[in-house]
Amino acid sequence: MNEKRLRLEGKVAIVTGAGSRGEGVGNGKATATLFAREGASVLLADMEIARANETLQGIEAEGGIASTIKVDVTNDDDCSQLVETVIERYGRLDILDNNVGNSFRKSVTEIDPDEWDNYMEMNLKSMVLTSRHAIPRMIETGGGSIINIASIAGVRASKAAVYTASKAGVIGLTISMAADHGREGIRVNAIAPGAVYTPMVSWRLSEEMRAHRKNTTALGTEGTPWDVAWAAVYLASDESRWVTGSILTVDGGSSILSRHAYTDAEIT
After folding, report:
1. Can you name the CATH fold of 12-250?
2. Distance between CA atoms of 32 and 26, rounded to whole angstroms?
3. Where are the domains of the chain?
4. Is residue 100 left, alpha or beta, with left meaning phi > 0 and alpha meaning psi from -120 to 50?
5. Is residue 91's pLDDT more than 80?
6. Residue 163 known to be catalytic
7. Annotated catalytic residue, options 90, 119, 163, 234
8. Rounded distance, CA 202 to CA 1, Å?
9. Sequence-distant (≥ 6) Cβ neighbours of residue 133 within 8 angstroms
10. What span, in angstroms and rounded, lies between the C-alpha atoms of 114 and 39?
């Protein structure tokens, strides 16, 4: 019997937000780890280099190939350097996982205009900047896969106007990019996570709130960053060669329940 081929063998990936905020594993760290386990060489990008280095240590301990870079993905020059660095180190770029984002619970009457701009830059504009530099390089080697991390907040109301608006923007951007660049060999898809338990939200969730989150899903369970990461592996791999412009919902079925009532705890 032939030895099983790794799903991302020979591919090169960038994962933004590749470190975790606080103890535990976030979406970026989990995704980078699985990419490496499946054979990809991974450039770990993060504003906080110490976080990226922690992810790197785990990957190298398992025999994976990765390196780190400090990047502000809201800065166009930094994004250009990010892409040129992956080419210099690994010779090509096949996968871009746009994972950077944050939540902010204010309505439009509560939020300051500067706050709005800052969160839109982080959650949406960052994906424009990384993608605009990545796509030409992907085209040079026959195409690639871009994965944008959205949220189920992008398709329904949540108590966070800028978060909802930015994630809805991510979904719109994903569809547009897929249409614009499909004939150039670029696939673009989004993942819309639901109530995933990550270091970003763990500090503000009581056990009662976590129980509520579980009860709002069809499966009655809580998601983990590994659930998001496995979805990213699929979209990064050749298994999804005929999938583009799709929004892959990873929420345990919470978005299909009409009885669902949102709370502050849901924003992930």
Report:
1. Rossmann fold (3.40.50)
2. 10
3. 12-250
4. beta
5. yes
6. yes
7. 163
8. 44
9. 79, 80, 82, 83, 84
10. 42
